[in-house]
């Protein structure tokens, strides 16, 4: 799937800056496809899924510590792990600016494409893709910052700032977009090889299942997961968990949606982060080593001791997620004390997920490994949780939980415990499974906070109820738009 670049630096500069006028450009089916391709592009940005957003979730959720080359390296990110962020945090501001262009570009598609004379099936697909893209961007926005203005149109230079809508209204807007996308999009199995990686019906269903689960709408969450399991796309767990994250399993049968990356096509990676097409995580998260080592990264989002201790003995996901001292990886031996990794990052552990330098080699910020956004494993865990919470049906709930555990080389819950757990005990077991299954994928923190677990899980690190459910909106956005800050900021 090829992408084009349209410049749009921030939400305060909302007029799309194309080289062709709108009247000339939006005429053909090819124009429609090019426009929706451009809407995918911001996901790749270093300050979105390329680096900033995953680290925000990993650090706040306690799966990782900041890492990097000492405490002063990207010091603003320290605020994520101890809940001291404020409106001047530069990394939050970068993320804020990186996410809004995707909303704008999706709105351009939804405004212009309906009037193009083109094949109706292709038109519906393009509109469905744009609905999903807008929904995913707004989902990330509201999980991070709560209530926000709802842009369902293309603003111009003279458009006045909109007030912040309530979070409930934003979630309703997202739900409506996803329901539309489900009706408009094809199944993943219906895409031609050249279009693999585009949003599909399963992508929209998966995000909607996550939204319903995070809202405690268990019956609806359960039904959506049933639809996913019955999909012609034949979603399933891949036998090898590690296959999801090493490049070999890009766009596999476990994927409902992932960010597409390729290597060797990016411009100067060091001067224009908005145009990178390669995945930067291999370098930014890779363990620190010497220039001669096969392992050579910047050490950010370094796995925490607490995460390591969350795994059961024999869990195959641990070595597929975390490097421990003495592990062999990429032809090298991980030696954090002698490589400088521990001295710089403060962690004795390194990342495995997504750490594959690819064709361009270490230091290029240009890995081809895709970043998983929604996996079938999460859907099975949502199904288990929905049955436990909504139907008080522990017997059937553990069936789905055990599917995930057995792939990880673990015995089923009832075999492990020797009895069928009750609702409360099973709830905690599901949460534990969610954490290790989705470790370092930036998802669990927002899921757990949505379930009002912030104080229970993160209170020891400073989480404050009534404040830290949300992050501070950047000061510049508050000043220009005249918004009130989030509570506590």
UniProtKB/TrEMBL annotation:
Residue ranges annotated for the RagB/SusD domain, each copy included: 254-446
Family indicated by similarity: Belongs to the SusD family.
Lineage: Bacteria, Pseudomonadati, Bacteroidota, Flavobacteriia, Flavobacteriales
Predominant localisation class: membrane
Pfam (any one): SusD_RagB
Gene3D superfamilies: 1.25.40.390
Location(s) in or outside the cell: Cell outer membrane
Keywords, sorted A to Z: Cell outer membrane, Membrane, Signal
Protein name: RagB/SusD family nutrient uptake outer membrane protein
Domain of life where this protein originates: Bacteria
Species whose genome carries this gene: Aestuariibaculum marinum
Assigned GO CC terms: cell outer membrane
Keyword Hydrolase appears in the UniProt entry: no
InterPro entries recorded: SusD-like_N, SusD_RagB_dom, TPR-like_helical_dom_sf
């Amino acid at each position: 799937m090829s992408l084009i670049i349209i410049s749009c630096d921030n939400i305060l500069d909302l007029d799309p800056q194309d080289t062709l006028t709108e009247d000339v450009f939006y005429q053909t089916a090819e124009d429609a496809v090019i426009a929706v391709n451009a809407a995918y592009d911001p996901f790749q940005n270093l300050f979105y899924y390329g680096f900033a957003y995953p680290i925000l979730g990993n650090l706040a959720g306690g799966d990782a510590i900041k890492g990097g080359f000492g405490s002063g390296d990207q010091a603003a990110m320290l605020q994520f792990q101890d809940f001291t962020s404020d409106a001047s945090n530069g990394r939050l501001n970068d993320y804020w600016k990186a996410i809004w262009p995707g909303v704008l570009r999706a709105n351009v598609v939804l405004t212009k494409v309906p009037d193009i004379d083109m094949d109706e099936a292709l038109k519906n697909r393009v509109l469905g893709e744009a609905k999903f893209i807008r929904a995913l961007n707004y989902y990330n926005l509201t999980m991070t910052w709560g209530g926000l203005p709802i842009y369902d149109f293309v603003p111009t230079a003279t458009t006045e700032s909109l007030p912040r809508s309530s979070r409930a209204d934003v979630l309703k807007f997202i739900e409506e977009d996803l329901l539309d996308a489900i009706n408009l999009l094809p199944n993943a199995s219906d895409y031609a090889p050249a279009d693999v990686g585009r949003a599909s019906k399963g992508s929209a269903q998966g995000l909607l299942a996550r939204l319903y689960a995070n809202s405690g709408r268990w019956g609806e969450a359960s039904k959506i997961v049933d639809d996913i399991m019955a999909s012609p796309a034949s979603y399933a767990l891949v036998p090898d968990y590690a296959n999801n994250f090493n490049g070999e399993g890009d766009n596999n049968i476990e994927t409902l949606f992932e960010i597409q990356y390729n290597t060797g096509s990016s411009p100067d990676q060091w001067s224009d982060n908005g145009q990178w097409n390669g995945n930067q995580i291999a370098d930014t998260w890779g363990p620190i080593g010497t220039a001669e080592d096969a392992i050579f990264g910047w050490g950010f989002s370094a796995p925490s001791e607490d995460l390591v201790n969350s795994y059961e003995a024999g869990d195959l996901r641990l070595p597929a997620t975390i490097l421990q001292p003495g592990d062999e990886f990429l032809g090298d031996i991980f030696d954090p004390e002698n490589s400088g990794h521990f001295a710089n990052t403060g962690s004795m552990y390194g990342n495995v997920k997504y750490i594959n330098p690819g064709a361009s080699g270490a230091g290029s910020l240009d890995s081809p490994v895709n970043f998983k956004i929604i996996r079938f494993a999460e859907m099975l865990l949502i199904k288990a949780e929905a049955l436990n919470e909504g139907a008080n049906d522990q017997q059937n709930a553990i069936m789905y939980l055990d599917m995930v555990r057995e792939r990880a080389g673990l015995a089923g819950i009832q075999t492990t415990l020797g009895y069928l757990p009750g609702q409360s005990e099973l709830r905690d077991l599901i949460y534990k499974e969610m954490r290790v299954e989705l470790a370092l994928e930036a998802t669990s923190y927002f899921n757990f906070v949505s379930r009002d677990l912030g104080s229970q899980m993160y209170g020891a690190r400073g989480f404050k109820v009534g404040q830290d459910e949300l992050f501070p909106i950047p000061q510049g956005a508050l000043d220009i738009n005249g918004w009130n800050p989030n509570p506590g900021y």
